[in-house]
Specification:
heterodimer, A: 114 residues, mainly beta, 4-stranded antiparallel sheet, B: 113 residues, 6-stranded mixed sheet, 11 strands
């Protein structure tokens, strides 16, 4: 089954404790992205990657890091989480052969930073 | 600066009637528009899209209309069904861009039996 998986699905942590949210896709997509969803703001792009070892900032990159060492994986790293990073996070993937930037989303990770 | 806006946070429609969800955008460089549907505890799923060279695209019960001069698009669902109850996000992109989607705030659609 073609899918994007994220782990963990739920996470409660404390300020300053480094964490990583994993994302993996099995569709051989070149492009991957991270979004956060906040009430009243919709989904905002954090980082994106156009291929292995190619990453770039989205609209709200502050406080986040990413890496793309393999095509299928795109982890999101919070080196020192803060309460304003409490949010619902989505990973997405897509391929340039699919017109219009249709992206496939993972199920989401709900993060709470105390 | 919200480049894509969905000004109605919620919409309630009776089953069998038409649901109309609206979306406005400000960036004239956008040339591809998408609608995503999101159920609780799931990721958004692609619903329908439209290129700026068209003004209408249909897929079954779903039709998207684009008015470029007004920078406005709408999603029509007819007839509305209880399973359509979800949050709908409008998104815009520049074809050939770096896979960057700009989303609206979302509209929660509730279909009443």
């Amino acid at each position: 089954e073609a899918q994007v998986t994220q782990n963990p699905r739920y996470l409660i942590t404390v300020t300053g404790k480094k964490l990583t949210v994993t994302c993996s896709q099995n569709m051989n997509h070149e492009y991957m992205s991270w979004y956060r969803q906040d009430p009243g703001l919709g989904l905002r792009q954090i980082y994106y990657s156009m291929n292995v070892e190619v990453t770039d900032k989205g609209d709200v990159p502050e406080g986040y890091k990413v890496s793309r060492k393999e095509k299928r994986n795109f982890p999101l790293i919070l080196e020192s989480p803060s309460p304003n990073q409490t949010s619902l996070y989505f990973c997405a993937s897509s391929s340039p052969v699919v017109a219009g930037n249709e992206q496939f989303f993972g199920p989401g990770t709900r993060l709470t930073v105390l | 600066d919200q480049q894509v806006k969905q000004n109605s946070p919620s919409l309630s429609v009776q089953e069998g009637r038409i649901s109309i969800l609206n979306c406005d955008y400000t960036n004239s460089m956008f040339d591809y528009f998408l609608w995503y549907k999101k159920y609780p505890a799931e990721g958004p799923t692609f619903l329908i899209s439209i290129s700026s060279i068209k003004d209408k695209n249909e897929d079954g019960r779903f039709t998207v209309f684009l008015n470029k001069s007004a920078k406005h698009l709408s999603l029509h669902i007819v007839p509305s069904q209880p399973g359509d109850s979800a949050v709908y996000f409008c998104a815009a992109s520049v074809l050939g861009g770096a896979q960057k989607l700009v989303f609206g705030q979302g509209t929660r659609l509730t279909i009443n039996p």
